[in-house]
Amino acid sequence: MSEPVPDDVVQALAATASRRGCFGEPLYFFTETPSTNDVAATLADRGAPEGATVFAWSQTAGRGRFGRTWFSPPGAGLYVSIVCRNGTAAPYVTLAGGVAVADAIRSATGLPVHIKWPNDVVVEGAAPARRRKLAGILAEASSGRDGLQYVILGFGINLRPAAYPPELSDRATSIEAELGRRADGAAVLAETLARFAEWVVQLSRGESRGLLSRWRELAPSAHGAAVEWDAPHGVVSGVSAGLADDGALLVRVQNRIERIISGELRWK
Ligand code: BTN
Description:
The protein contains seven helices and twelve strands. The chain has 268 residues and is α+β, with helices and mostly antiparallel strands. Biotin is lined by residues 35-37, 59, 62-65, 68, 70, 79-81, 120, 136-138, 154-156.
């Protein structure tokens, strides 16, 4: 079924073994697969443990938020999904994934990425319209009669430049395009798993303050940025006013505060 894990990934995982706990164990590698989230869900349905991880070099049916396609050509990115079974950490899995990916890119490559709510990992431009995305997070939960069974945390990281489709070309970028040099994808993967594991340890003790505080540091646009969204009665405009403790984005609209839980915002 899966293929031998590439040597550079084996080495990078060994270097982070003491920090990763169960994350990345076992690791299933595919040169190409339809969607790592789907493979991880199938494995979870068959009993795969917390931390089991699926990693691919390309996806033929990569999925993004709102049912969009996640562009996943060969040689351009890291496509990864993790089985998460810890019920206490579950409400924060998406935030923890975004923070882990952003901090892993920062520490493994030196690129000063930020987070844009809810969990896009971006490089800032001279203006919000010039901001470009280089990683995204998709968490998908499965529940049964006894409640939550597992969450699959999927993340896609653009490592190398690619021929993005026209609708993405002015909004997407990659780590190497921004750095202007090669980056170590195996190190980014291993560091992401280690950082995610560290957050899950804290969350499973009921401690979410550290995660929320790191998310806020990484997301300057969560404060004071002009945003708008489509509501049933028309377009609503406001100014971002921080992250609530449950992950909602607060937006000041005239003299009231709205809570944005999901949906799509436009950043002006
Ligand atoms: C987004 O829209 O920003 C989320 C993108 C998530 C893409 C990743 S790539 C690995 C995993 N498998 C998928 O099919 N999607 C996620």
